Amino acid sequence: MIGIIGAMGVEIQSLVQMLENRETVTVSGIEYAKGTIHNREVVLAVCGIGKVFAAVCAQTMILKFAPDVIINTGVAGTLTESLTIGDIAVSENVAQHDMDTTALGDPAGFLSGINIIKIPADGKTRQLLVDCIKQLGVNYRTGTICSGDQFLASQEVKDRIVKNFGAIAGEMEGGAIGQVCFINNVKFCVLRAISDRADGSGAENYFEFLEQAAQTAVNVIDRFIKMSGE
């Protein structure tokens, strides 16, 4: 079974409409829609914005549906000049840029308890996603995707995240989903279409590009589901 989590409805609503034999269950206010797409078992959920909602959603999805892999899809701000609006970032690993115990001597982003900074995504899943992106002819990059409970709209913050993590994209959920998957030994990957520059320039156009970018990600996920069953 493939688990797919988006923060907002626009990020997965097209996939929900594709579900056959659909069944739904709501836990902690989050609706999980289970069914088949391209004859593959899939469970979809809109978790809500931010790391806490994302973690609750991922943990519940693992306990109730036992997916083989979880993909976090949606949109992100670019942290590299090689990605612009409509392009795609795929995670080699994820980090949490707002996890900060540097005052205690830890490096930025250090996750106490599991004692790492960057959580590795599943390589096989990433490669299949990249193959799908290539087939669609969309520009992409793989690398570190950073998460934090902050909409990135400052060049200063953007520069700090790039300096500390070498990240290619920033968003608000993937790092938490990755951490939950890591401690549960569940494969995961984050795929994000670029919706903005994350530096405050043109932030007013975020909603203009949101739907377009989200649909680009959905197109990749749709192809991924189909190819994963071949």
Detail the topology: elements first, then pairings:
Elements: E1 2-6, H1 9-18, E2 20-27, E3 30-37, E4 40-46, H2 51-65, E5 69-78, E6 88-96, E7 119-120, H3 123-136, E8 140-147, H4 155-165, E9 167-171, H5 174-183, E10 187-196, H6 206-228
Helix pairs in contact: 1-6, 2-5, 3-6
Structure description:
There is one protein chain. Strands 5-9-8-6-10 form a five-stranded mixed barrel, surrounded by five helices. Strand 3 (30-37) and strand 4 (40-46) form a beta hairpin. The mean pLDDT is 94. It is built from six helices and ten strands; from the N terminus they run βαβββαβββαβαβαβα. It has 230 residues and is α/β, with parallel strands linked by helices. It has helices at residues 9-18, 51-65, 123-136, 155-165, 174-183, 206-228; strands at residues 2-6, 20-27, 30-37, 40-46, 69-78, 88-96, 119-120, 140-147, 167-171, 187-196. Helices cover 36% and strands 31% of the residues.
How many β strands by DSSP? 10
Shape: globular
Distance between the termini: 14 Å
What does the oligomeric state look like here? single chain
Q: Report helical residue fraction.
A: 25-40%
- Major pleated sheet: 5 strands, mixed, barrel
Portion in beta strands: 25-35%
Number of alpha- plus pi-helical segments: 6
Radius of gyration: 16 Å
User: Helix and strand succession?
Assistant: EHEEEHEEEHEHEHEH
Mean pLDDT: 94
Report low-confidence residues grouped into runs of 5 or more.
none
Overall SS class: alpha/beta
Strand order of the largest sheet: 5-9-8-6-10
